[in-house]
Amino acid sequence: MTEADANNAIDLRATMVPNPGEHTRVKLALDIAVEQVLTEPGCLRYEIIKDSEEEIVLAERWASQEDLDRHARGPALQDLRESLSALLAEPLKVEQV
Predict the structure, then answer these.
(1) What is the pLDDT of residues 61-74, one digit of tens each?
(2) How many Cα atoms occupy the beta-carbon half-sphere of 53 within 13 Å?
(3) What one-character-per-residue DSSP string does the chain give?
(4) For labelling, which of 8, 18, 31, 88 has a CA lying 20 to 30 Å from the CA of 51?
């Protein structure tokens, strides 16, 4: 990756707070999504960086806004959101870092 490419890269953190007793199901859904998303064009990083019963944090890095937008519309993220819909204690929080 060139310096110009690195400057265009987008870093995100997605934080999930599982409902009590749902940590294992949230982690399983994430493990499936990570495997799928890592094959998407422009995905430079998609990995769990914090994993506790109270909170799971996913780090993402995308080569461009176009790649991130494609991911946002893609089946892996749609499937993940559907899987997590009843498992989280609060809405998924995604922030750019």
Answers:
(1) 999 999 999 999 99
(2) 2
(3) --HHHHHH-EEEEEEE-BPTT-HHHHHHHHHHHHHHHTTSTTEEEEEEEEE-SS-EEEEEEES-HHHHHHHHHSHHHHHHHHHHTTTBSS--EEEE-
(4) 8
* Locus of tokens 């609060």: 90
> pTM score, two decimals?
0.89
> How crowded is residue 13: how many other Cβ atoms within 10 Å of its Cβ?
15
**Rounded-to-10 torsion of CA 81, 16, 47, 66:** 50
